[in-house]
Known about the structure:
single chain; mainly alpha; 16 helices
Amino acid sequence: MNFNKTGSYIPATDRQSNIELLRIVAMSMIVILHFLCHGITEENMPRFLYVLICTYCSVGVNLFFLISGYFRIRSVMRSIARLVFTVLFFDFVNYLLLYFTVGPAALYDWMSTLFFPVSRSPYWFLQVYLFLIICSSLINRGIDGMSLNKLRLFILVFSVFTCYSCGVGHNGSNSNGYTFLQAVYMYCLAAYLKRDNRLMSRLKGTKCIVVAFVMLTFGALMVYYYNKQTLTSYNGFINIITSTLIFTYFVNLDIKSKTVNIIASGALGCYLLQDGLFGHRYLYATINRVFTSEPLYCSLAYLTVQFISFWALSLLITMFVRPLFKLLDRNLVAPISKKLGDFVDKIPVG
């Protein structure tokens, strides 16, 4: 998720619609995956269909890291402030939804949200992303300091380590892909792809999508028949290759659509609403209850309504609070960031 280039602070007309469409697709994958993993069990629907959908949707997380690496994170302090403020705002929306469904949250929950909005939230992705923002200046400097050949060699070695030592060998530094190291790898991979124009020119067209879904289907078959979960995990070679192919396909698209850009602005909010406290304490249990007690067609209809509702609510909230975001960014975040930067620049060195 690149909050610098494509967050709710940037007008819809200034964004690249092909990347925004990818953002919509990736977030939709994540929402569906959460519905299945947290709310539905394999007993509630045909197992192969369950495994197939989970496998197809598992590339969503890597796609967001690729988007961030392709555009790069440029303003550390402003990115941190924007992320924390956005999470705080949607956390309070979560509490409001909880109040009307389950009841008021405990004082401990409020204190944790207030003082640790990201660190104690259910959002593991944002916890990793926050650290990625903090380290982005160092990572960018390293990427920019390497020639294309050296960067290519670095990515090759990093890829072997990630896929073999971590994805297959379950290395403790990145045993399952839910880690900072995975974010750094996908970030660097996207930065390399942007620099290697010859490779990017080859990775375009529908062949990328076809190969990606053939590989994902193969991965689903391996999970279904042999329980080979590592092949399709975030750090598995199938997930990495397919997410890269899907990413390059969208990068090479030529699309201009204000509607797509507007819808994409609600992607982060959709994630924060659906996988926040409201999701973990009410929504997922409700989905499970519906799939357990109702016919499959009714359950799927309920899931579709939930999917559309989260996107619509997030988009509505994002459009409503955008002026507040801009006001805080202009009058609070930007001045503090500048003063802090000026202060650091004045510190004597040597």
